Structure formats: C-alpha cells, structure tokens
Amino acid sequence: MWRKVYQDALAASQKPPTPEQRLVMFADLRAVLNKAVANTRHNQKAEAMAYVWNWIEAGESQAMSEIKQRGEG
After folding, report:
1. Which of 17, 22, 24, 71 is the most buried (most CB within 10 A)?
2. Rounded-to-integer distance, Cα 6 and Cα 11, Å
3. Residue 10 domain flag
4. Which residue segment(s) compose the domain that 61 sits in?
5. In this structure, is residue 41 part of a structural domain?
6. pTM above threshold 0.85
7. What's the CA gap between 67 and 56, in Å, rounded?
8. Residue 22's closest CA among 67, 63, 54?
9. Closest to 49 in 3D by CA, of 62, 39, 59, 36
10. For 8-61, what is each residue's pLDDT tens digit?
11. Does any domain span residue 8?
12. Is 43 within a domain?
C-alpha cells in the first residue's frame, strides 16, 4: 500500500503545476504574508517582504498569461 502511495506522490511531483494550481498557491502565500505583515512591528520585515510580493505578482501575471494563451490557441 505504501509503495503505491509513494509511487503516486513521486509521479505527481514530476509534473509541473498548472497555471490554475499556481494561482491557488500564490493566493495561499499572499494570505500568509498578509497575516505576517499585520503581525509585525518592524518596517525592515515589511521591506524584506517586498521582494516576495513582487515574486508573487510576477508569478500570478505569468500564470494568467499562460491561461489566456491557452484559451486563444
């Protein structure tokens, strides 16, 4: 039984996530970061998170672009 579960997990991890799956991942990460920013008192932490916010926005933009291209094709 465990071997089958392991094989399924291994196969799933080798497939790249779909754009929709990436959007869900980015939404979850955005919620976590919003909570972290709300709970921090240090401006330095917020400034450091700016890089993460930019990465999320770029990833969301790329995923939406892929979805739109797939719809046009």
Report:
1. 22
2. 9
3. no
4. 17-72
5. yes
6. no
7. 16
8. 63
9. 36
10. 776 777 778 889 989 999 999 999 888 877 776 666 676 777 888 899 999 999
11. no
12. yes
